Amino acid sequence: MQRDKAISIKALSMLGLARRAGKLSMGHDMAEQAIIKHKAKLLLFCSDVSPRLISEFERTTKKHSIDIKMIKTDFLMEEIHFAIGYKAGVMTVDDKNFSNRIIDLLRQEDNANGN
User: Fold this and answer.
1) 111 partner at 20 to 30 Å CA-CA among 1, 2, 7, 51?
2) Bridge-partner residues for 69, per DSSP?
3) Taking the model in full, what pTM does it have?
4) How would you list the strands of the sheet with 90-93, edge to edge?
């Protein structure tokens, strides 16, 4: 099923704004550190990451007793790279307002797709 392009663009734009504001931790090591230091409010995975990477982050959050929202998006790493200028399969949003807005946009996209 095809994504709602307008909502996808808004979500990617919001990620770009978060990056410019210094509120994204992109890539494996930076995301892991943001989680361990309790800075992360939202954990995002691209659709083309390996299941091993997702399970690794699940183990990390359990090990450190961290409750964080994890979302596997429909975005490919190339789309993220184009939107924010950094190629990463995993990232954390380190601001509550940005994370809430991104979650809302991703839910709207799911609803538009009938999921």
Assistant:
1) 51
2) 42
3) 0.89
4) 24-26, 90-93, 42-45, 69-72
